[in-house]
């Protein structure tokens, strides 16, 4: 398991998010005089976005059986022919309040427009799964970067594992956050993502995907779930785990498809983290393990950027700040994560090798290759 007790308990994401951002009165986190804009994507594509309300009629909800069929919410980001007239909000005021304890995040500007007409060509698909207790919106900067580079990106909320807003303004809370069963969370997420792939690879969303080029990435337990799915779903070509411990047994057969392990503080005195080191022995295909020693568990999300813009970072207990953020500034975390995740997707979905994945880069001295 991890060297960090909080991360090892895997209540890290939820507890940490609450400590950093949650339960804060609006007055303590008021919007800056000018609402901030997310970091600009580096790609050239215009970006559209839309929300999907999905109902899996083959499953009863595992966390709330009385709710009936499993219901999920996903966001799509995609290359657009032209922008629509409606800029996409980062979050609704209600969801911002439910997650962050303030409605201030509703004012954050993004780089997508709602329901913009999609470019006609089928594009490679990247699915994103957030950390436990965290909303899909905390992966927006990564999603916009990939969409701006020509990918279709789908970020999925896992209902009852975080606050989730459904059409009509209904917000379902995190039912299992106080007593999570992570041995069940991972296989349940695998089913959620598999169902999403079912929907996205057939007509009906208005956005065309190339079903022969699919990758899954995730933060924390979302990353562990991505790798788990890679070993069970033949449609998935590659997986990226962003600082997520593994909570399930290794696969019976070695995993031959590409895996990126991209973490923070997972080496100490050149000793690799035991949780990842043990699982890595079961990868027989292309693999990389990258570490950001100055980063933290939240480096791979929008949380450091949010905290710096809304002056919330000092709300975390002093003994947890290093694990949460490290010393890497939020403005630097975003380009580092974007660059390496995009390089991984380009290599394995488009056949475009990048030197970023082959050797250390002077442009990104924060990233260390773990042997």
Automatic annotation (TrEMBL):
InterPro entries: AB_hydrolase_fold. The keyword Lipid metabolism applies. Pfam families: PAF-AH_p_II. Residues 1-29 form the signal peptide. Gene3D superfamilies: alpha/beta hydrolase. Residues 30-50 are annotated as: Disordered. The keyword Signal applies. This is Dienelactone hydrolase. The lineage of its organism: Bacteria, Bacillati, Actinomycetota, Actinomycetes, Kitasatosporales.
């Amino acid at each position: 398991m991890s060297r960090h007790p909080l991360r090892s308990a895997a209540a890290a994401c939820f507890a940490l998010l609450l400590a950093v951002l949650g339960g804060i009165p609006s007055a303590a986190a008021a919007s800056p005089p000018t609402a901030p804009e997310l970091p600009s994507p580096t790609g050239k594509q215009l970006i559209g976005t839309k929300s999907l309300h999905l109902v899996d009629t083959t499953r009863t909800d595992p966390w709330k059986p009385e709710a009936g069929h499993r219901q999920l919410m996903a966001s799509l980001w995609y290359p657009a022919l032209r922008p629509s007239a409606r800029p996409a909000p980062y979050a609704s005021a209600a969801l911002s309040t439910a997650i962050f304890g303030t409605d201030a995040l509703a004012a954050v500007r993004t780089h997508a427009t709602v329901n913009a007409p999609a470019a006609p060509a089928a594009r490679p698909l990247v699915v994103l799964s957030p950390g436990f207790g965290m909303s899909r919106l905390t992966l927006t900067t990564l999603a916009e970067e990939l969409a701006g580079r020509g990918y279709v990106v789908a970020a999925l909320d896992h209902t009852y594992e975080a606050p989730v807003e459904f059409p009509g303004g209904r917000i379902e809370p995190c039912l299992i956050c106080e007593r999570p069963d992570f041995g069940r969370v991972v296989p349940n997420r695998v089913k959620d993502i598999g169902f999403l792939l079912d929907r996205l690879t057939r007509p009906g969303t208005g956005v065309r995907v190339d079903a022969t080029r699919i990758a899954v990435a995730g933060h924390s337990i979302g990353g562990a779930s991505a790798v788990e799915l890679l070993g069970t779903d033949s449609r998935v070509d590659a997986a990226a785990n962003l600082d997520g411990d593994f909570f399930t047994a290794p696969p019976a057969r070695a995993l031959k498809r590409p895996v990126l392990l991209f973490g923070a503080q997972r080496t100490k005195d050149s000793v690799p983290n035991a949780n990842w080191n043990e699982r890595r022995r079961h990868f027989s295909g292309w693999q990389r393990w990258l570490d950001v020693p100055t980063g933290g568990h939240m480096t791979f999300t929008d949380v450091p950027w949010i905290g710096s813009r809304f002056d919330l970072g000092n709300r975390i207990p002093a003994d947890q700040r290093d694990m949460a953020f490290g010393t890497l500034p939020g403005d630097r975390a975003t380009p580092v994560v974007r660059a390496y995740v995009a390089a991984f997707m380009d290599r394995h979905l488009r056949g475009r090798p990048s030197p970023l994945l082959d050797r250390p880069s002077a442009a990104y001295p924060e990233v260390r290759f773990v042997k």
